[in-house]
Amino acid sequence: MTTDEDRARIAERLVALPVHELIDVLRRVLPQYTEDPYGIRTALVLAEATDYEDEPGLEVELVAWPDRDYYNGGLGIDQGLWEHGHCEKCDAGVVSNAKRAYCPYCGSRCGLT
C-alpha cells in the first residue's frame, strides 16, 4: 500500500508532463481497470468535459490514445486536445492531440479532424 506522500510524489510528476505524454502514461494504466462481469463491460477512461458558456449542458468526450504505429513510435503533435471525432464502432465522442488515434473504450482506430 502506498502512503499519501507516495501518491503526492506520483501526482507531482504527472502534473509536470505535457498533455500528450500524460495521455501516454494513462494509456498504460487505465485499461488495466476494465471489467466484463455478467456481460456488462466497464472501463476506466480519461475524458475531457467542456462547458460552453452560451449552450446548456456539458459535452464529454473520451480522450483517444494516439496511434503510435502511425506516428512511428511517437505520440503525435504536442498541441493539446484539439482533434475531435467519433468512434465508428462504439459511437463514443473522442478527442485527442493526434489525428490518428484509438478509442479508449473499444480499441478501434479513429480518424479525428
In short:
It is built from 2 helices and 7 strands, in the order H-H-E-E-E-E-E-E-E. It is of the alpha+beta class and 113 residues long. Strand 1 and strand 2 (59-63) form a beta hairpin.
Note down, in words, how this protein is organized.
The model has no long low-confidence stretch (mean pLDDT 95). By secondary structure, the chain is an alpha+beta fold. The strands form two sheets. A four-stranded mixed beta sheet has the order 1-2-5-4, with no helix packed on it. The chain is built from two helices and seven strands, in the order ααβββββββ. It has one domain. The chain is globular.
Helix-strand pattern, N to C? HHEEEEEEE
Radius of gyration: 15 Å
- Helical content (DSSP H or I, runs of 4+): 10-25%
Strand order of the largest sheet: 1-2-5-4
Shape label:
globular
Uncertain runs with pLDDT below 50, 5 residues or more?
A: none
Number of domains: 1
Question: If helices are DSSP runs of H or I spanning 4 or more residues, what is the number of helices?
Answer: 2
What does the largest sheet look like?
A: 4 strands, mixed
Question: Helices and strands: which structural class?
Answer: alpha+beta
Determine the N-to-C terminus distance: 42 Å
Q: What fraction of residues sit in β-strands?
A: 15-25%
How many strand units? Answer: 7
Task: Write down the overall mean pLDDT.
Answer: 95
Task: State the main characteristics.
113 residues, alpha+beta, four-stranded mixed sheet, three-stranded antiparallel sheet, 2 helices, 22% strand, globular
